[in-house]
Amino acid sequence: MIEVRRLKVLRALADHGTVTAAAEVLHLTPSAVSQQLAALETEVGQELLERRGRRVSITSAGRLLLAHADTILAEVERAEDAMRLHANGANGEVRVTAFATAISLLVAPALTRLQETSPGLSLVVRDAEGHQGITQLLDGDADLAIAVEHRGSPRPDDRRLTRIPLYAEPFVAVLPPTHPEDSPIGLEKLANDDWVMPASGNPIRDVVLLACEQAGFQPRIVHQSDDFRAVAALVAAGAGVSLVPRLAVPEPTLALIRPLPDPAPTRRVYAAVRTSRADHPLITATLAVLTEVAEKL
Description:
The chain has helices at 4-16, 19-26, 30-44, 60-87, 100-117, 132-138, 203-214, 228-236, 281-294, and strands spanning 49-52, 55-58, 92-98, 121-127, 144-148, 161-175, 194-197, 220-224, 242-245, 256-259, 266-274. It is built from nine helices and eleven strands. The two termini are 56 Å apart.
């Protein structure tokens, strides 16, 4: 194993010609320089210097090693610079979990923007529905989670998390093409329909069930899917009705899209980070761009 610091000593000797001059540049004693060079010769198993009295010259093996040393030392310097930038928060990786719609509407545009504003920042994105994103965040498997407020959300006073509201969007009714076209349509008018609903554990299901409960009925759930394109396709085929967040409605769709009267159920989307890392420059940079993108929704 070759010690990089000893390559620096060899390079200094080649540049400055004598052990004494190399020692001055390296802020070492001539004895220390000689010891480092002797150790380097032991490491490579070849003579690197030819000694002629008080003078030394570099052997062919030494010149060969120098050719590699220049490349090695340049890469080490780049690595040192990269580590300094990382320590200063100028570059590094941010692991983001988000549900599918947020990836499309928020994370992907933010990634494009960050490539321009923070080229040293790299986003690693994972799809996570329901509680998964917050769980991964608290477990340390993610640095930032984009999630939906619902009855199962962590309590607002959970000191482990810092939350940043991003956007809120109303739900709309998704109806078969043959459904009576009230606009807006009261939720109670859908009490006798079959329903297409997200699976248990999806925050959207909790929001819709609560809205139906407040409208005075329990929906008859026949079909389940967490994919809003699949939900819209099933509804368009006459399989039932559904409620979908407005921004998640696929386009185009053959289903009828109708607003709900106020106060309509709302999907509230927020970003969460561990409080211990809320001030990290990479995370604050990511949150700033996510907030900027969210304001345009």
